[in-house]
Design a protein that fits this description.
This protein is mainly α. It is built from 4 helices and no strands. It has one domain.
Length: 91
């Protein structure tokens, strides 16, 4: 989840949609992306993917994730976010 938030913030910095001295914290990221539409038509998709990651966290860190299948799904979502942001960042 945190690496995904770093990719999203890096993409926002790179595109000039967020000041370079400011990051959006993980617990605010989904709502801000949806509200501000920083990624145009992709904002809602990225927002929902990130929200899914937040909800998968193990219960001891405020999520509902429970097992290895959750980890596989989380990795799949992370890779989608990484691919989207990687295209913006040219990496």
């Amino acid at each position: 989840m945190l690496i995904s938030s770093h990719y999203i913030n890096a993409a926002l910095h790179y595109t000039g949609r967020l000041r370079s001295d400011k990051d959006i914290k993980h617990n605010k990221l989904s709502g801000v992306l949806k509200r501000e539409e920083y990624f145009d038509e992709n904002s809602i998709k990225i927002s929902e993917l990130f929200r899914e990651l937040e909800e998968m966290r193990p219960s001891q860190v405020y999520g509902t994730g429970k097992n290895g299948n959750t980890a596989k799904l989380a990795k799949s979502i992370y890779l989608q976010i990484k691919e989207f942001c990687g295209e913006i960042l040219n990496v």
